[in-house]
Structures are given as structure tokens and as C-alpha cells.
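Page 47, continued from p. 46.
Same chain as before, 443 aa.
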Amino acid sequence: MTINPLSIFYRSIDRWQVHPSGSIQIAWKCDPKAVLAVCQAGNLDLGGVSRSNLDLVNTYFDRLAETQSSQESIATIVDNLYRSALAQSPLSSDNCWFNWIGAMTVKAACHIWRKIPSSQQSPELFEQLVSPTLSVRNLLAGFDPQYHPNLFVGLQAWTYRVVKYHAYTSLRANGRPYFGLSNLGVVARSSHTKVRAALVANIVPEQLELDISICKVFKSYLERSKVSVNKLGSADWQEILAAVQAISLAEPLQRRIDITIAELGSRIDRVGSLIRANASPVVHSYDDRSRSISIDRYASLPAPDIDESTQILGQLFTVIDRFINNLPAEAQKMVVLYHHQHLKQSEIAYLIAQDRFIAANIDRQDSRSWAELSPIEITKLTNNYQTKVSRKLGNIYLDLLDYIHANVSHPDDKVADRNSLAIESVKQILEQYFQADRPAKNT
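Result:
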């Protein structure tokens, strides 16, 4: 069914449904009062067509839109509706601009919905997205007719931008603080306290102050220049780089940092990813890091007692020994290749794919050997296993985390939750475990 441009004024949501597949189905209904308003604005006569029958009303306006004078007619209708709404004080409850905002909100909601991971999608979330929060009065009062030469096009573009902004704001206020932002945008919107909190557990002390200084310069430039992150040009980055290099010559850095603009952007991007992870951990909050027994790298923490640390690490290594010995052979191999031999996940996927191919064909007389496969076939098999390797390692870290806390006393006998910083600590403990003259098993 063809939907004419004016339908945005007279259609409203009848119902919507989120399917198990994640798709959204929306049913529309006709607003008879809005249809009348559109007709009056264009001096149109429906000719006996029921104003409550959406299909018939759509057909009528579809035919109108096909005429040679359609663009002029639509422009006149929109202009009259706009001026009429501006003159109303207060706005009537049946004003067709309510339908306009609702339709634009649905459009933005469906666009945003596609960006949300399926595991986080829910009817409640879509209800939050699809509920308009922009008032018609704010819409009309805030819009500048000079925004676009065509009033209709300008109103659509401006309304869509505003309702999308409101939806993003709502999401950020309800547990998704950086939704829709690039990592550079995350840094721009984060306080210096949040920047430091995210960096202090993930950056070695030697880099900590430099990265914090870089972020301060970056944020300061954005505030001073009033340039948005997505509009930064080469000249802007040159100024930011010059300011960073000037800062790096002063205390406490005391040295000139010779980096390119690309490297500067990459460092700020990484900081943004760490802030995002710190604000939205993959799992729940974990140990009190100020009492941590392991390697959370807080610059302000006192150095641990050597004898105590050695004793704790010895206790941890004994637990890790038992955990790894109880893993299936393939899982053991992944851990050893990644943390002992420091292979990339793509390289591990290649070896796992090779092992499974050989095992599957060992008793087949007519099968080819691994060496006889073409590069394309090997790449395809490897790619199939790369995601599985990443997912398996992630599950191993979580299992090891639980195993450690089931066998090693937690400070103050607290119940340990989970979070991404704890997962990072587990990875680092495994690095120490394999560096402490551990045998290279199952390789």
C-alpha cells in the first residue's frame, strides 16, 4: 500500500508488537479529526470517503499526491497547518501535530531498535522508545522555518533529529549512559573523575597521567571551540595535538610526546572504550578493589607486602592448577596457547580447526588431508572457529573467577559479584601463572 506524505498527520498507532525474532510490527489507525484538519488546510473535499477508514483515506491522498500540482498542494497544506498550530494557544487536543510527532517518534524508535543487541531488546524497552516525550508547543516554538527551504522537508528533518535526541537521552538516563555515542563522544561527555576512574584500573602508571592530560586537552578544546566531535577537522586535530605536546613538556610528564594525529585519536578512542566498559560492565560489580589481592593497578595503592603477595599468589596458583587440569583438553589448549604462547585468537582458531578436521577424517579412507585443502577452504574453517574461541575463552574466565572465589577466601568474607575488571584481573593472574615456570601443557 502506498503511503502519501500527508499520512504522517492523520495516522496514529493502533497497536504494536515485538516478535520473538526482534522485528517490530506496527498497526496504524485513522484519526478522523486530523483528516478533517488536513482537508480544511488544503480546501479539499473527501467526496463521501469515511474519515475513519484508513485504507480509503490513504487512497484518496495517494491519488492527490500523483497529480502534477501535488507538490504545491502539499506545501500549501503543511504551511497552513503550521501557521494554524502557531496561532493556537493553547493547542487543541486533536491537533494533527500530535500524530506528526508520534509518527516521527516511531520512525526514530525503529531505527534505534536495530542498534540494540537482541539480548537487550524487550517490549518494555520499545515502549520506552516509542512513547513521545516532545511537546507540540516545544516543537513549533523551537523550529526555525529557515532551517530548510522546503518547510515540509525541514520540519521532518528537525523533528526526527529532536525525537531521536530525546530517545537517546532517555536511554542514557536508564542504564545506557553512552548509547549512540562514539568513543570520542564518550570522552567528551565524561567528567575528569570518570576518565580517571576508568583509566586507573586499566592503564599502567607511566601512561596514566599522560592519557588523563590528553583527555583534558581534548575536552577543553571542544568546550572552547564549540565544535562537536563528529565535526572535528584536520585543523582542529592539529590544534589539539599542539596543545598535547605543549602539556607534555611540563610537570609531571617532563618530556615531549612525539605522536601523530592518528595516534592521538586512537588513544582518545581507547579511553572512551574503557570509560564505556567501566560504566556498563559485562557483568555485575565485583571485589572491593581497594582491598584487592591481585593486580588492580591503582597508582594510589600502597605496594603490597612481598611475603603476603607471594603466599596469596601461591594459593591462587594451586587453585588454578586444579581448575586447568579439570578442563577438557581443547579448552586447556586454548588457555595455554593464548596465555602461555601468546598466540592470537585467529591463530588458535586455525589450530583448533586443524585438530577437529583431522579428528573428523581420521577413519575415512577417501578423505583429504589438511595439507590438501585450498587456502580458501582453510580460511573458511578457521573463520568458523574464531568466534567460538573468543566465546569459549570468555566462559573459561567466568568459570575460573567463580572457582577462585569458591576456593580462596574473599576479603571480609564478602559475597563476590562479577564485573569486567575482575575478568581482566583473571586474565592477568593467568599471565602470572604461566610466567611462573609453569609447564606448557597440551600444546
